[in-house]
Amino acid sequence: MKAIVFGASGATGKLVVQQLVKRSVLVRIVMRASAIIPSQFLDDKRIEIVTGNINDFDVQKIKDLVKDCNFVICCLGHNISLKGIYGSPHKLVYNTVAKVIESLQVHKMKPKFILMSTTAYTNKKSGESNTFGEKLLFFLLKYLLPPHKDNVLAADYLVYKLGSQSNINWVAVRPDSLFDEESESCYEIHNYKLRSPIFNAGKTSRLNVSHFMAELLTNDNLWREWEYKTPVIYNKE
Ligand SMILES: NC(=O)c1ccc[n+]([C@@H]2O[C@H](COP(=O)([O-])OP(=O)(O)OC[C@H]3O[C@@H](n4cnc5c(N)ncnc54)[C@H](OP(=O)(O)O)[C@@H]3O)[C@@H](O)[C@H]2O)c1
User: Fold this and answer.
1) Most informative mutation of 5, 6, 12 for ligand 1 (most atoms within 8 A of CB)
2) Atom 11 (ligand 1): residue with closest C-alpha?
3) What domain count does the chain have?
4) Can you tell me whether residue 64 is helix, strand or coil?
5) Is the pTM for the entire model greater than 0.70?
6) Residue 26 contacts by C-beta under 8 Å, 6 or more apart in sequence?
């Protein structure tokens, strides 16, 4: 089994790589030249490092990168800095998702695709709705915080453009407020948000997100349960 991880230098992406390797999956990672590569990745023969910026890759290049992969994971996100939030590319995640999906359309292996999304995404197609206060704040965020808009567009692409009739197998995993913990802990997965991400946010450890993603990819029953859905993940309190 082989996976490709975009955003593998990120806090969650690198944990996803570790979880996959632990499950005997070979992993190809794509990193910017400026990214700090975890030292254990450099010495691990199961990890292939491709240096480059996903923004500069065209669909043909991505086709070449994904062609022998069973799993494709996107853990990209805007860096928390002025440049990361307000600089280009504003549509980092959306553009990557659109290019990856295009590159998978004729893929013979029909890989499983996971997008790291967020509880700030409301899946209205599945019946989720926002309160008046949330609507107001999400409206403001859409215009004031480009990464929020990017995350919404990327998830909308899967939910509306692909939907469940697509020949692309996808899941968009939605963590609440991310934090780091030393070891895996109990977590719960829901079809819908149980809490307001704005007024009553829950917590989700990155390690648990990576664990859930790796389980989804390597456990077909779990995948079937969540395919074409936007599961929300919270740490158990
Ligand atoms: N913060 C939260 O509470 C929260 C909650 C739910 C969901 N999320 C979502 O989850 C995402 C991932 O979270 P995280 O903490 O694991 O993210 P992170 O550590 O910031 O990782 C972001 C990844 O994206 C890459 N990246 C950033 N800007 C790029 C660009 N212009 N071109 C190419 N690659 C770029 C980074 O590469 P470099 O290493 O090269 O910079 C890194 O690999 C978030 O960004 C957000 O969308 C966040």
Assistant:
1) 12
2) 77
3) 1
4) helix
5) yes
6) 1, 2, 3, 46, 47, 48
Exposed/middle/buried for 171, CB within 10 Å: 0-12, 13-18, 19+? buried
What is the spatial distance between Cα 45 and Cα 39, in angstroms, rounded to a whole number? 12
List phi, psi (to 5°) of 160: -95, -45
Which residue's alpha carbon is at the smallest distance from atom 21 of ligand 1?
Answer: 10
Q: What is the CA radius of gyration of the chain?
A: 17
Whichever domain contains 18, its CATH number is 3.40.50.720
Residue to probe by mutation, ligand 1, list 19, 173, 178, most atoms within 8 Å of CB:
178
Q: How far apart are alpha carbons 224 and 229 in whole angstroms?
A: 10
Is residue 51 within a helix (H) or strand (E), and if so which, with residue range? Answer: strand 47-51
Q: How far is the CA of 227 from the centre of ligand 1 (A)?
A: 23
Domain limits for position 193: 2-235
220, burial (CB in 10 Å: exposed 0-12, middle 13-18, buried 19+): exposed
Q: Ligand 1: which of 4, 9, 94 to mutate, most ligand atoms within 8 Å of CB? A: 9
Q: What is the pLDDT of residues 29-86, one digit of tens each?
A: 999 999 988 888 999 999 999 999 999 999 999 999 999 999 999 999 999 899 999 9
Q: Is 79 in the pocket of ligand 1 (CB under 6 A)?
A: yes
User: Which residue type does 64 have?
Assistant: D
User: Is the CB of 185 within 6 Å of ligand 1?
Assistant: no
